[in-house]
Amino acid sequence: MIYLGLVLWAFFQALSVIGVLNYWRHLPADRKVEGPDGAVVILSVRDDWDGGADLIAGLERQEGARFRLLIATSGNCPAAMALAARHPGWVEVIAAGVANDEGQKVHKIRAALRALRAEDRYLVFIDADIAPPARLVGRLLFPLVRGKAEVATGYRLLLPARLALGWIGAVEMQLATLPRPANGTMPWGGAMAMRRDAAERLGLEGALAGRLSDDMTLGLVARRAGLRLRPVRDLLVATPLDGGFGAALDFGMRQYRHVLTNSARMWAVATGVVALQALGWAFAFGSCQWVAISIGYGAAWIRVAARARILRSVLEPEHMRAVWRSLTWDAVAPFLVVWAHLAVQLAASVSRRIGWGGYDYWVRGGRVVRMVRSRG
Fold first, then answer.
1. Tens digit of pLDDT for each residue in 86-108?
2. In the predicted structure, residue 237 carries a pLDDT above the cut 90
3. Residues whose CB is less than 8 angstroms from the CB of residue 295 and which lie 6 or more positions away in sequence, other chains included
4. Domain range holding 230?
5. Do residues 7 and 72 both lie within one domain?
6. Where are the alpha helices (DSSP H) in the chain?
7. What is the pLDDT of residue 184?
8. Which of 222, 244, 266 is the last residue of a domain?
């Protein structure tokens, strides 16, 4: 029985190593950008947004990309209005009002879609908390302009502010460096793009109505419509992460509640895969088999080395220090990362309430059935 367990454990660890190495192998060497006319970047912000000096500076230095910036607010964002006054012709502000039956972010994106101009042909969606690389917009537009896809996406890479937050960064890094074939990819709302004609074909503004998750909704309706979705593997977009343990736990549960309330099957598959890894570590320690523990740690260290090479090639140098906080957890306590990952997935299943952006939402089948302002 122990021998069979060792064989299965080695098999699963080998698969995980092959997955990361496969991601590394398929990183594009020639990272071309496109800067077509008719590109618009849509940014949804809260009304208490501080103006995102680093974000705007990052957008101003985009390589080879020409675009206008459409900022969607609830209606009273002084920082957005000040930015538009400083950059007339480049920045436009849209006041969406306050939602009562859908996610506030979705509500603002829908308002932005209704405000598009006739010449807008490429839509780029970003989040306010990212640290955009200089090639972000151009890389997202490249597969769309070249006719390789109708939807393109990058993926989030968390930058923990402290080592204590490295566990959630390590969890997210596991997801970020999974091989993502086009037919198995879901877009990430922090950095995704699509052709305007594809959005109109989907009826995107109407498809988002009543929803909480913008990217999950877009991904699911695009998949059903047979659109081509392309992951841009070298776009692992740095996203700073601060706060305490509770904030990190809330973040993780919110992500998986988005998945669960939109696709229970997707949540079940993801949870099942992590559960197998968690059981493998429990077997390794429970059986006191040093061979099993060595297999687990050996595979973890190979993955860490490969991920470090991946990240050095795609991130700005100043972000690598924060990344090492996540890699350290993955190297020193890979079993804790896996167990924490499973705990977050399971905790996400006990409620359909999602706290996000100052509101509490109750979601069923991807649709908001109730929303209230969060206390405090």
1. 999 999 999 999 999 999 999 99
2. yes
3. 6, 9, 10, 13, 284
4. 32-244
5. no
6. 2-25, 53-60, 78-86, 104-114, 136-145, 166-176, 196-202, 204-207, 214-224, 245-262, 264-286, 290-314, 320-332, 334-348
7. 67
8. 244
